[in-house]
Design brief:
Elements (H helix, E strand, L loop, with lengths): L1 H12 L13 E2 L7 E2 L2 E2 H18 L2 H17 L10 E2 L2 E2 L2 E2 L7 H7 L2 H11 L7 E2 L6 E4 L8 H7 L4 H19 L19
Antiparallel strand pairs: 1-2, 3-4, 5-6, 7-8
Helix pairs in contact: 2-3, 4-5
């Protein structure tokens, strides 16, 4: 169980997890769980939601329970059709570039957040001006960041000498602001085949 829990923690801390809008991307392209293939699949949400629910039942780890709630919040919001069926996936690309919808430049956050929020976001999500996302063809840094954690919120709270609940509330305020900012971007295409009706175009 220890190996399973370590893997689930790495997945929810890394770039495989969408720290702004929730849901898991399709798979990781590196050994650090940092850079995902940015497509989001319905079946991944179902299977990983089940995996985290079973982990919570076995360990009582509240982090696993949070992931379960957030996964199904994402499915309800983004992958459920008005007719009551489910969309199968959200594309990886927008405006002709993979991951563009999900990546952040540090200056974008500094413009959209207060100074204190931007500094906390930089620490929590490991953001730099050089970025941690590299161009696929050249390998050069792009100045864009994939939000990810390298420490648990509990550990971060101890490092920052902050009450854990206070830190979680501040991170949630940051997340909501980033979500609002991101909603103004061009969205990736959503696969319109509906599992309820079997129709699509």
């Amino acid at each position: 169980m220890r190996m399973v829990e370590k893997t689930l923690q790495a997945m929810r801390h890394g770039g495989l997890w969408d720290h702004v809008g929730f849901g898991f991307h399709r798979y990781s392209t590196d050994a650090e769980w940092l850079v995902p293939h940015f497509e989001k699949m319905l079946y991944d949400q179902a299977l990983l939601g089940l995996a985290y629910a079973e982990a919570y039942q076995a360990t009582g780890n509240d982090e696993d329970a949070r992931v379960v709630r957030d996964v199904f919040s994402f499915v309800s919001r983004e992958l459920t059709s008005p007719e009551g069926g489910f969309y199968t996936a959200i594309d990886a690309d927008s405006e002709g570039a993979e991951g563009k919808f999900y990546l952040w430049r540090l200056e974008e956050l500094e413009r959209g957040l207060t100074a204190k929020q931007a500094e906390l976001a930089r620490i929590v999500f490991n953001l730099t001006s050089a970025g941690n996302y590299s161009d696929e063809s050249t390998g050069e840094r792009t100045g864009k960041n994939i939000l990810h954690l390298t420490r648990s919120v509990t550990a971060l709270a101890a490092d920052l000498k902050m009450n854990e609940e206070t830190l979680r509330n501040r991170i949630e305020s940051i997340r909501l602001k980033l979500y609002e900012l991101r909603e103004k971007r061009v969205h990736p295409l959503r696969m319109i085949r509906c599992l309820l009706t079997g129709t699509g175009s």
